[in-house]
Specification:
The protein is α+β, with helices and mostly antiparallel strands. It has helices spanning about 30-40, 85-105, 160, 165-170, 175-195, 200-210; strands at about 10-15, 20-25, 45-55, 70-75, 110, 115-120, 120-135, 135-145, 215-220, 225-235, 240-245, 250, 255-260. Helix 2 crosses helix 5 (about 175-195) and helix 2 packs across helix 6.
Length: about 260
């Protein structure tokens, strides 16, 4: 995807906890630029942040609407993990973000498998994790995070409004974007360090406490197939385990789900 190279880098900032933030006013996609920078060789924990994105990307090739007022950023990490384990980093980021929305603002934030954070059932944060591998080894991972922060819902196209929300809409006021980002990065770093030290099981257990879809009926589309059943668990590898109507279990490594009325 061609990058919009008219971007203006406003500043590079180093945080006290070791992240280097490259801030831009307007770029095509922070994930794209982060990938470009990472390929050239950059240190772990470099962050690309943009006030607005012209070609923001969501999962499955969807567009991600990124007006001003949102928090759009991508973190470059170089963990020593297999490509399958990169999914775990998405879980960790959604855990950090949901926990923070609860603790900092008292919002009833939930995680939705595999990569969303919801408030009142509406999406407030999406995560797009991409890995670059060479000969089966992960060279770097980009965790792209989009948080609908100081955004009026009218800024979204009409078809998205009923499924999306923003911090401004939920709280009734704007928040300090920089302060929020710094706290989020610091908390993420704590969780990432725990992951590196082997605490994945505990992180996943905490994630599940925020996953209110567990135990509910869902309809999952995975690689073009539709499965209807009860979401019973998220496994150690991050797969969604559902119990189908015929009593058998199915573990899905990827997909999208909606709550289902059809399962009896
Ligand atoms: C999704 O829910 O589909 C994932 C959305 C991820 C959006 C973020 S915004 C910052 C980063 N740059 C992108 O182009 N996408 C991610």
């Amino acid at each position: 995807m061609p990058l919009d190279h008219n971007e203006t880098r406003s500043q590079i900032q180093r945080t006290t906890f070791g992240y280097t933030i490259h801030s831009y006013h307007k770029i095509s996609s922070t994930n794209e630029l982060a990938k470009e920078i990472a390929k050239k060789g950059v240190e772990e924990k470099t962050v690309v942040l943009a006030k607005t994105q012209t070609l923001g990307r969501g999962r499955t090739g969807r567009r991600w609407i990124s007006p001003r007022g949102g928090i759009w950023f991508s973190i470059i990490l170089k963990p020593q993990i297999t490509s399958e384990d990169t999914l775990k980093l998405t879980f960790i980021m959604s855990l950090t973000a949901a926990r923070m929305l609860k603790d900092a603002f008292g919002l009833n934030a939930e995680v939705k498998w595999p990569n969303d954070v919801l408030v009142r059932g509406r999406k407030i944060c999406g995560i797009l994790t991409e890995a670059c591998t060479k000969m089966g080894n992960v060279e770097f991972v980009i965790i792209g995070v989009g948080i609908n922060a100081n955004i009026d819902l009218q800024a979204f196209p009409e078809n998205l409004r009923k499924n999306a929300t923003s911090l401004k809409h939920e709280l009734g006021h704007s928040i300090d974007l920089k302060d929020f980002l710094m706290k989020l990065l610091r908390q993420f770093d704590d969780d990432y360090n725990r992951f590196q030290q082997g605490d994945w099981d505990f992180l996943l257990e905490e994630w599940k406490t925020l996953a209110s879809f567990l135990g509910k009926q869902v309809q999952v589309t995975s690689f073009g197939e539709v499965f209807i059943g009860k979401a019973v668990d998220v496994t150690e590898t991050g797969s969604l385990k559902i119990r189908l109507k015929n009593g058998t279990f199915k573990e899905l490594v990827s997909g999208e789900f909606t709550m289902s009325q059809k399962y009896k």
